[in-house]
Write a structure and sequence with these properties.
Pfam family, one: GntR
Strand order of the largest sheet: 1-2
Shape: elongated
GO molecular function: DNA binding; DNA-binding transcription factor activity
Order of helices and strands: HHHEEHH
Keywords: DNA-binding, Transcription, Transcription regulation
Helix content: 55-70%
Organism: Leeuwenhoekiella aestuarii
Number of domains: 2
CATH class of the largest domain: Mainly Alpha
InterPro entries: Tscrpt_reg_HTH_GntR, WH-like_DNA-bd_sf, WH_DNA-bd_sf
Number of helices: 5
Number of strands: 2
Radius of gyration: 18 Å
Distance between the termini: 30 Å
Length: 116
């Protein structure tokens, strides 16, 4: 895994795990890799993965079942989508609108490209 120097590694790994949950690679109730397994997979210190898992637990995306491992919570997908929508509407969209305005892009031009 390649990391961006502009963001903490543990956050980048948390985002990657969240992506996997959104894409259905990890389903609610399903076990995720152990700290050591994921550390070996992404090539980081296990302490970094522990910090990632602590972050995801605080957001109720994963839970630790002592002696068994870490599992995706039933509400994980909703938690992730809610947080990402908040980021989109509070950070990404305002920046996008500012950029479009600076480039003189009209709302009609945007509508033509936003046909989802």
């Amino acid at each position: 895994m390649e990391f961006d120097n502009n963001q903490s590694i543990y956050i980048q790994i948390a985002d990657t795990l969240s992506d996997r949950i959104i894409n259905g690679e990890y389903k609610p109730g399903e076990k995720i890799p152990s700290v050591r397994e994921l550390a070996a997979e992404v090539g980081v210190n296990p302490n970094t993965i522990m910090r990632t898992y602590t972050e995801l637990q605080s957001k109720e995306i994963i839970e630790n079942k002592r002696g068994i491992g870490y599992f995706v919570t039933p509400q994980a997908l909703d938690c992730i989508l809610q947080e990402r929508k908040k980021i989109f509407f509070n950070k990404i969209l305002p920046q996008f609108i500012k950029e479009a305005s600076q480039l003189g892009i009209s709302s009609e031009e945007l509508k033509n490209h936003l046909d989802l």
